Amino acid sequence: MAQSTYSRLSHFLRLSVNKPSVLRTGTEMGHAPACCLQFTRCQRSVDSKALQERQKQQMARGLPKQKPITGVKQVIVVASGKGGVGKSTTAVNLALGLMANNPSKSVGLLDADVYGPSIPKLMNLKGNPELSDNNLMIPLTNYGIPCMSMGFLVEDVAPIVWRGLMVMSAIEKLLRQVDWGSLDYLVVDMPPGTGDVQLSITQNIPVAGAVIVSTPQDIALLDARRGAEMFKKVHVPVLGLVQNMSVFQCPNCQHQTHIFGSDGARQLADTLGVNFLGDVPLHLNIREMSDRGRPVVVSSPDSPEAEAYRKLASAVVERLHEVHT
């Protein structure tokens, strides 16, 4: 039996070797008519384009469709590549600066940092949101700014130990199950980094623009660049970079010291081809008022620090106008 099987296999292999190949070599193709070669090239090009189109359609079907937040005209996300650069403080004072520059504009503030919500502390807000007749959460309000944060839904010191799916569910609720009323601007305080939350927000809602916050320090600028590049990849306009903690002025002798470096964010903005939105100084007043839940724009409106945030707000509005007209 084994000998018979071996004989049949040998016979098949000999037939395969001796049988003329249906594939042509490059030399044989050289003798083919030119019209046949042209047809082959055209067919390959058509097949390649068809494959790319099918892949594009499949990817589009896999992404969620962007749906605006009811009542919100423009969403501004405030982001950073890393934590500790003053992103949340900047987001709070930017929202207050937008309203201070034009009191006729309504501004809301969404804390999307699920793991480390800072807005309740910075805006001096406590308590749980009530529900509207439509079972939507009603934001808590202070200084004329309606705010929503995961910090309103959990205990102050309770750790949020969640996996990715639970975080995405929480973000969906913060985006879709809040009664914002009518807002001209919704400022979103994003978590640091370039992870699931950033992608989920940019893919689910239309974002008018992103503000990137960084200190002038080289290590912070590396991550800020990653953040800016991420928003470009997901087709969110980068409104520009903010250089936070740019300079420290001694309250006694008024000497200025660039503790974290000088003009790093401005140089990065030039490198990336985006706008530089402004400097915010490293000032004791900003830190103290933030810790007390009294942001400097409302607690010290005539101070140079508050003026820096109002200038930032003006630059953001100007960039929004440029991008969307």
Write the layout of secondary structure elements.
Blueprint: H1 2-18, H2 26-30, H3 34-62, E1 72-79, H4 87-101, E2 107-111, H5 119-122, E3 140-142, E4 145-149, H6 164-176, E5 183-189, H7 196-204, E6 209-214, H8 218-233, E7 238-249, E8 256-257, H9 264-272, E9 276-282, H10 284-291, H11 296-299, H12 304-323
Helix pairs in contact: 4-12, 6-7, 8-9
- Total helix count? 12
Number of beta-strand segments: 9
Low-confidence stretches: 8-13, 15-30
Mind describing the biggest β-sheet?
9 strands, mixed
Radius of gyration: 29 Å
Order of helices and strands: HHHEHEHEEHEHEHEEHEHHH
Provide the structure class.
alpha/beta
For the termini, the CA-CA separation is 83 Å
Mean pLDDT: 83
From the spread of the alpha carbons, the general shape counts as globular
Task: Assign a percent range to the helix content.
Answer: 40-55%
> Into which percentage range does the β-strand content fall?
15-25%
Report on this model:
The protein has 325 residues and is α/β, with parallel strands linked by helices. It is built from twelve helices and nine strands. The chain has helices at residues 2-18, 26-30, 34-62, 87-101, 119-122, 164-176, 196-204, 218-233, 264-272, 284-291, 296-299, 304-323; strands at residues 72-79, 107-111, 140-142, 145-149, 183-189, 209-214, 238-249, 256-257, 276-282. Mean pLDDT is 83; it is low at 8-13 and 15-30.
